[in-house]
Write a structure and sequence with these properties.
There is one protein chain. The protein is about 45% helix and about 20% strand. With about 140 residues, it is an alpha+beta fold. The chain has a 3-stranded antiparallel beta sheet with strand order 1-2-3, covered by helices on one side.
């Protein structure tokens, strides 16, 4: 009976641990991409000029990705402007779209054709430039 219990324990517990680890990593990616888009938008609209805004947004997103356990380059942020001649015109909108690819753990390379080896997550955040801000 001990052998059967040990065998069933391995058959049930190992996949359960894998599932919990995989879902946890994907959830960390979901939180990271959402927060990175939000913080990139906030970093952009609080900059003094357009030249420094993109760098601030990328730095903010990089800090968020790093705090969720992702290395540099795994996540990206794209920025765009809606309305106004300048991105920092009061009342205009800045759109930040963050993307991250979360690799699934323990999927061997030879199974890449039949199973997904990574999940791509995206998030978009629209931040409004303060109406009472001084025009650049």
């Amino acid at each position: 009976m001990t052998v059967e219990v040990a065998f069933l324990l391995v058959l049930l517990v190992v996949p359960l641990f894998y599932l919990i680890g995989t879902v946890g990593r994907v959830q960390a990616g979901a939180y990271a991409v959402s927060a990175a888009a939000r913080e990139a938008g906030r970093g952009f609209v609080t900059a003094e000029d357009v030249g420094a805004a993109a760098g601030r947004a990328q730095a903010a997103a990089g800090l968020v990705f790093a705090s969720h356990g992702f290395i540099a380059g795994e996540g990206t942020v794209e920025l765009g402007c809606e309305g106004g001649d300048s991105c920092l015109t009061p009342g205009s909108h800045v759109v930040a779209e963050a993307t991250i690819t979360v690799p699934l753990p323990l999927v061997p390379d030879f199974m890449a054709r039949s199973l997904p080896t990574a999940i791509t997550l995206t998030a978009q955040h629209v931040e409004t430039v303060d109406e009472f801000r001084e025009s650049p």
